[in-house]
Amino acid sequence: MRPHYFSHKQIVLITALIFLILSFVFFRESEFQGHPNLSGQPTLGSSNAPVEVIAFEDPLCSLCIHYSTDIFPMLRKNYIDTGKVRYSLILVSFIEGSLPNAQALMCMQYQNPSLFFSYMDNFFKVAENSNGPRSQIWKETALEMPGIDVSVLSHCVNNDTYVSNLQKNLEMGQKIMGDEFGTPILIINKTVVPGTSYETIVKTIDKALETTQKK
Amino acid sequence: MKWLYLYISWIVALIATFGSIYLSEVENVTPCPLCWYQRVCMFPLIFILGIAVYKHFYRITIYILPQVIIGWLIALYQSVETYFPHILPLHLCRAGGLCYEEGANFLNIFPLSLLSLLAFTLLLVFSFLNLKNDP
Description:
The complex is a heterodimer of chains A (about 220) and B (about 140). Chain A is α+β, with helices and mostly antiparallel strands and about 220 residues long. In chain A, about 55% of the residues lie in helices and about 10% in strands. Chain A has two domains: about 1-30; about 45-215, Glutaredoxin (3-Layer(aba) Sandwich), CATH 3.40.30. In chain A, helix 2 (about 60-80) crosses helix 4, helix 3 crosses helix 6 (about 150-160) and helix 4 (about 115-130) packs across helix 5 (about 135-145). Chain B has helices at about 1-25, 35-40, 45-55, 60-85, 110-130; strands at about 105, 110.
């Protein structure tokens, strides 16, 4: 049975090498499969922007509050407002007490989309500093902002109008990222990045910009 | 001949290990609890068998036999539960990852429990062939 050309040891080494190369080919990049459905989701930035960023957030997750108050404003100023990035937000709700807040935010998006991002910015500022009940931060925020009809938001929250939308969003995130799904998480073109470090996010966006320019 | 048996066993372990990691890491199929026990039995074999086949150390068979048998039994249990769910009283897989759902398929044709059973069966057959030829 001994092969003509190679010794046993050579065959073993060649086999190991083949599997090593195959593993590099298949595991090189962890790109997600498919594309999230963005219809109806809050979006910022030019539709012609070369890089697409999709963020998943839970309104009450502590890292999301950090992301939204400290990282997102810089991202918005340097990348979204300059036309480099088109930004979409997908709200999910899995933390205790976040459901009314997530529903109020969704409600704002559907009832008055032009106010969504300013409402969200204020929401996270209140969430960072408020000592009130966590499930009522949406109300505290709405009462502080002129031009917002609290009764409309209350109606959405009390009737669970957007529970199924939020559930669909969560399933979408889990389907795309599997076990790794958590918040805040960003999909930058096709690369998945946690929303915890501005440097990492910027590095990934710059790399994506470079790639699109080469094309 | 013994070398060939050992070599094929190693290839089977390599394919099973890389296939399993590919499905969980790239295709995002969550391994269920039973799948994890089978992985525990399978993954170390790529190193153990690799060194044994390189060094012509045929007595390795007896050392790997326990984990091959345990892995085979778990794969058998899972396959039986997948196809005859009412035979067995225990249902270990429901809470965790995908065991019986659509995700646990390779190319939508082969259920993973059967592939695992096939891999462990091959390992078992080659192990016994090697033991039988032991002087």
